[in-house]
Amino acid sequence: MKIIAFTGMPCSGKSVAVQIAKDKGIPVVRMGDAVWEETKRQGLALTDTNVGIIADSMRTKWGKDIWARRTAEKIKTLQNTEMVVIDGVRNKEEIDYFKKTVGADFLVIAIIASDEIRRKRVLSRGREDDSTTVKDFEERDKRELRWGLKTVIDAADIVLSNEGSLEEFKEDMTLLLEDLMSTIE
Predict the structure, then answer these.
(1) Domains in the chain: how many in total?
(2) What is the DSSP letter of 87?
């Protein structure tokens, strides 16, 4: 099985890339879903603050690869698939865990966009766990960088810029996924 992990700063375009993968029939496992599930399990609302607290505390208590381990459990339940996309890898320990468990068929794609573009996106999209102010957005960035996200982005196998229009990004991501799908034997 080929596993492709999307990474990038908040609002860089990972959700759009995920939707394109789904449209291509590629199963997607979102690491953030495991954090959301744990947040709900602990009786907390899905706010940016609560999700961040749970993500941090679980990493401290169970190791920096806790969300990779939980995500791998979900991947194991998928049947008859040659490719899976993981959304939201955030640290080197998660990458190391996936490489150890899936081997050479693991690829990291970093999606990048400027701070200005990402800030405009977060303030306009209104997702349940999104930051609602520029200050909250900056705090979320700091938190994700503290988790090791910059190291993951810098070490990515492929870097895809999302600085242009939505249509341009969709076209670039579609071509990239089609190319990767063509390499599966």
Answers:
(1) 1
(2) E
Could you give the CA distance from residue 136 to residue 131 in angstroms, rounded to a whole number?
5
Work out the number of other CB atoms within 10 angstroms of the CB of residue 44: 14
State how far the Cα of 174 lies from the Cα of 168, in Å rounded to an integer: 10
> CA-to-CA distance for 86 and 106, rounded, in angstroms?
10
CB 106 within 8 A of CB 1: no
Per-residue pLDDT of the chain (185 residues; tens, 9 = 90+): 899 999 999 889 999 999 999 999 999 999 989 999 999 999 999 988 899 899 999 999 999 999 999 999 999 888 888 899 999 899 999 999 999 987 668 999 999 999 999 988 777 766 555 566 778 888 888 988 988 899 999 999 999 999 999 999 999 999 999 999 998 86
Number of Cα atoms under 13 Å in the Cβ half of residue 158: 14
Range of the domain at 35: 2-182
Helix axes 66-76, 92-102, angle to 10 degrees: 30
Evaluate whether 51 touches 39 at the Cβ level (below 8 Å).
yes
Burial class, 101, CB count within 10 angstroms (exposed 0-12 / middle 13-18 / buried 19+): middle
User: For residue 130, what is the domain's CATH number?
Assistant: 3.40.50.300
pTM score: 0.87
